[in-house]
Design a protein that fits this description.
Elements lengths: L7 E3 L2 E3 L3 E4 L6 H11 L3 E5 L24 E5 L6 H17 L7 E4 L12 H13 L3 E6 L3 H10 L5 E2 L13 H10 L5 E3 L5 H9 L4 E4 L1 H4 L4 H21 L21
């Protein structure tokens, strides 16, 4: 039922899948490749700091074994502690995307994290870097705390999405910021991608049932006992949540209502 009527639009690009997958923390390159294939995702995010400077000459990276005619690279600025570092990483990310044949790819997952202990995104650094990169023509997908006002400010700047965390990155705690994420979804006019903290397919489903436009995850798949199988489960969870959101759940009631008719069926 994943028809063309329900594509995800980010910037000027359309995607069938609403699941985005990271590429870190896998035990083996084969696990990463098989998970990406099983997930049926179309957007793959890669930390720019982990990439070789020349992808075409690199034969050891699993990236060379992915079909970049079907996948869209989302370079991310992970590891950047300041806006200036993130900006440099974004430009390098575009150069690396060009090496994969995606010359029109100016996407960047913007991460500015100055806190080494809790790894929470820096709102001021994120705003500063986002404003600069948008002016330079980048399609900016900012990773943020679940802060409704910050989300509005980033949307006003021209960000293509907002990406609030469900809970601290890599924690697997699920969606701990339910109320704020609901507010962000309600007020946003750009796609809302729940990013970080999701540990199970049911949590991915919950994010989509809330009305999120997509989910980005990594550790839940990479650190599972069977990454490929977990990736497939996440794919189904995201699809189920999206379909449920579009269908519209029944109204909650404070009392029981019989599902069978109370009156006797007339005899024929």
């Amino acid at each position: 039922m994943k028809g063309s009527f329900d594509k995800l639009k980010i910037g000027n690009k359309y995607f069938n899948s609403r699941l985005m997958l990271g590429t870190g923390k896998y035990k083996t390159p084969d696990d990463a490749i098989q998970s990406i294939e099983s997930s049926e995702c179309e957007i793959v995010t890669v930390a720019i700091r982990r990439l070789p400077t020349n992808l075409k000459d690199d034969t050891t990276s699993f990236l060379s074994n992915l079909d970049w005619n079907k996948l869209w690279l989302l370079p991310n600025t992970a590891g950047s502690q300041t806006a200036e570092e993130a900006i440099r990483m974004a430009f390098l990310g575009h150069e690396l995307a060009c090496q994969l044949g995606q010359e029109d790819n100016f996407f960047v997952k913007l991460e500015v994290i100055s806190d080494p202990k809790y790894l929470l995104p820096d709102p001021l650094g994120t705003l500063k870097a986002a404003e600069f990169l948008i002016k330079k023509g980048f399609t900016v997908l900012p990773y943020i705390n679940a802060d409704p006002m910050l989300a509005l400010h980033l949307e006003d700047l021209g960000c293509a999405t907002v990406m609030p965390l469900g809970s601290p990155i890599g924690s697997g705690q699920g969606i701990n910021n339910l109320t704020n994420i609901k507010i962000i979804i309600e007020n946003s006019n750009v796609p809302v991608i729940v990013d970080a903290g999701i540990g199970t397919p049911s949590e991915a489903t919950l994010a989509m049932e809330l009305g999120a436009d997509g989910v980005l995850l990594n550790t839940a798949v990479a650190q599972s006992k069977n990454p490929s199988q977990m990736a497939y489960a996440m794919n189904l969870g995201v699809q189920a949540g999206r379909l449920a959101y579009l269908a519209g759940r029944m109204e909650k009631k404070n009392y029981a209502i019989a599902s069978s008719p109370l009156s006797q069926i007339s005899k024929l």
